[in-house]
Amino acid sequence: MKRTLVIAAVIVLAASLTPSVSAATKEPVKICSKATSKPHASPSVLQPKTVAKSLPTTFTFVTNCGNIVVETVGAKAPQTLTALATLASRGFYNSTLCHRLTTQGLYVLQCGDPTASGSSGPVFNRKPWTGIPDENLPVGQSITYPAGTLAMANSGKNTNGSQVFFVYEDSALNPYYTVWGRITSGLDILRAIAAAGAAKQGQDGKYYYNGDGFPVQTVEIRRIIVR
After folding, report:
1. Residue 80 in this model has a pLDDT that exceeds 60
2. If you ran DSSP here, which 8-state letter would residue 153 be given?
3. In this structure, is residue 43 part of a structural domain?
4. Residue 93: is its pLDDT beyond 90?
5. DSSP count for the chain of H helices, then E strands
């Protein structure tokens, strides 16, 4: 789940909110309402220097497809939770689009980049945050990232920022990604989004269903409630 640069055409797809996919038509996800968010620059948020005295216990992702409730791991990932709670409270995730869906071999929906490019993260005064250290890595577990896991996406060791991924089916990933929560409500929403498929642009300029690409069902995070 490394952060990767998504071609500009995919950002156009995100901006359109109504992607035209040249493949077998699938039924729209009935639980989802129309998304109105568009890719935008990351808002400036000061990075916290110390761990919060009181760590959040739940994150509720309010999306156009319904609420996804996550129970956190608490003291197992204090720096991660402090950073995510800071970003959420400052509105960093408001009106952002989930930019990546994988449906083959790896079963995740990735979100948390306001630019929807997959290559951006939190900044302060236009300067990127220092990477959040890895925490609570599932080393030695038979299934490293089981269905319902919430984890951090990164581009290498201790490079965590704002991007997260929701695991909707058991996924065998290397234990390189901080696990910070477990979905207690909304796993059915993720599976419905996954069933609609992902798309990538072909050489002819058209979009086709693909096992790894932009979600055909546009998913926007409207806000996150932290408690």
Report:
1. yes
2. -
3. yes
4. yes
5. 3, 14
As a whole number, the mean pLDDT across the chain is 91
The one-character DSSP state at 30 is T
Burial of 27 per CB tally in 10 Å (0-12, 13-18, 19+): exposed
Tell whether 2 is covered by a domain.
no
147-161, pLDDT tens digit by residue?
999 999 999 999 999
User: Does residue 3 sit within a domain?
Assistant: no
Can you tell me the distance from the alpha carbon of 49 to that of 183, in angstroms, rounded to the nearest whole number? 28
Residue 226: which H helix or E strand, with range? strand 220-226
Position 199 confidence tier, pLDDT thresholds 50, 70, 90: very high
- Domain residue limits at 100: 8-226
Q: What is the CA radius of gyration of the chain?
A: 16
User: For the chain, how many residues are written?
Assistant: 227
With respect to residue 70, please indicate whether it lies within any of the assigned structural domains.
yes
